[in-house]
Specification:
This protein is of the alpha/beta class and 368 residues long. Helix content is 30%, strand content 32%. It has two domains: 157 residues, Gcn5-related N-acetyltransferase (GNAT) (Aminopeptidase, 3-Layer(aba) Sandwich), CATH 3.40.630; 191 residues, Rossmann fold (3-Layer(aba) Sandwich). The protein is built from eleven helices and 17 strands. It is elongated, with a radius of gyration of 23 Å. It binds S-adenosylmethionine.
Length: 368
């Protein structure tokens, strides 16, 4: 099985003899052993025994247990195992520490979670916060404390009701509609550019455009000489289309969900966070909190934030989704006292259907 994350190709393959030493290293890694649910391997010979057992059983056609090495190119970076019992698929996984936080396990679990199974479960060491956070992305509070090999573990039951629904929604929007007919298509991102000019940012400043879609803003920024742009979106289709239009020079592309970020949480801080018509899609308190926590984590002191969302008296829906509309006070409350308002205005955007859409644009500076 092959998956790709940003530009890395991840594959899951049954183990071959040549993987034995890497497998032993993985299963006896001190850091990983601390978090193994059900106890760690202390001896290389036990890991070796497991390797041969898993290797043999995985190739058996009717085997309920399958074990895969997780590879980037030919390098073993992790282990993924499935045990199928009564239409319940239990997953067991390990990933080398320097590959944590890159969205690799999220992608692999998403793949299995989309298969037609009754449900997926996973047992996790209670102190393994990285893994519990990851599984909580798939779970609606279905976790129980239980015992495995006499050790306390958390057992998660994964749900299909997860971020991927939104990913699919946006992918479909970009696949099925010509760019110029998208309800938010703006030939000239003038209102945003006006606020960016006010910041007097240097050309090499790190500009993060969240939920950028295929926005024309990116080509305008490149034309103006900005050369350190980070573009994010939940939709891979949108990012690929944008890449076709503006290329990859001076731009980093990051596919990630702002309400369940995995890759964005690990990037370097930015000088400008720009959002046009993204935040207003987040309706749940938890999603909004995650968005603002990420913003606060990534925006440097003395850096800027531009939020441009539908105003309180603006339309209630966009792209078939209900919206949470915003006032200046609502932005200010979410950002807190470390952010100072520099400028704001209301803007009537005429969308490609000719309808008016009332936005509020606001520029904030982080002062603390
Ligand atoms: C209305 S469009 C605006 C696109 C762009 N900002 C513009 O002004 O043209 C909303 C964008 O947010 C993206 N988006 C929606 N939910 C997201 C999420 N949870 N994380 C990241 N991007 C998201 C969508 O894929 C879409 O590209």
């Amino acid at each position: 099985m092959n998956l790709s994350i940003n530009n890395s190709h991840i594959s899951l393959c049954f183990y071959k003899e040549e993987n034995l030493n890497d497998f032993i290293d993985l299963f006896t890694d001190e850091e990983l052993c601390k978090y193994m649910a059900g106890g760690a391997f202390e001896l290389e010979k036990d890991a070796e025994k497991l390797f041969y057992y898993l290797q043999n059983i995985s190739f058996l056609e009717n085997s309920k247990r399958k074990a895969y090495g997780v590879f980037i190119e030919k390098k073993l970076i992790g282990h993924f195992e499935t045990v199928l019992e009564n239409n319940e698929l239990e997953i067991i996984y390990l990933l080398k520490k320097n590959f944590w936080g890159k969205g690799i396990m999220f992608k692999i679990i998403s793949y299995f979670n989309e298969q037609n199974l009754e449900y997926i479960t996973a047992r996790v060491h209670p102190n393994n916060t990285n893994s519990t956070k990851l599984l909580e992305k798939f779970t609606i509070a279905k976790k129980t404390l239980t015992y495995f090999n006499e050790q306390k573990v958390l057992k998660y039951k994964l749900s299909k009701k997860m971020a991927n629904n939104f990913e699919e929604h946006w992918n479909k929007a970009y696949l099925n509609t010509e760019q110029k007919k998208l309800g938010w298509y703006e030939e000239n991102a003038a209102p945003t550019l006006k606020l960016i000019e006010k910041t007097n940012l240097e050309k090499h400043s790190r500009i993060l455009n969240v939920g950028a879609g295929t926005s024309k803003l990116i080509s305008s920024l490149l034309e103006k000489g900005y050369n350190n742009i980070i573009v994010n979106d939940i939709s891979k289709i949108a990012l690929n289309k944008l890449k076709e239009q503006v290329g990859e020079i001076n731009i980093e592309y990051i596919q990630d969900d702002l309400t369940k970020p995995t890759i964005l949480t690990n990037i370097n801080k930015v000088d400008l966070w720009n959002d046009r018509a993204v935040l207003h899609f987040f309706k749940e308190k938890e999603a909004i909190e995650t968005y603002f926590n990420l913003l606060k984590k990534l925006v440097k002191v003395n850096a800027y934030v531009i939020l441009s969302e539908f105003a309180l008296d603006g339309a209630a829906k966009c792209c078939g989704l209900d919206l949470k509309r915003y006032s200046l006070e609502m932005f200010t409350e979410q950002l807190g006292e470390n952010f100072e308002i520099k400028e704001h205005f209301y803007y009537n955007f005429r969308n490609p259907n000719g309808d008016l859409r009332k936005y509020i644009y606001a520029l904030f500076k982080r002062i603390n």
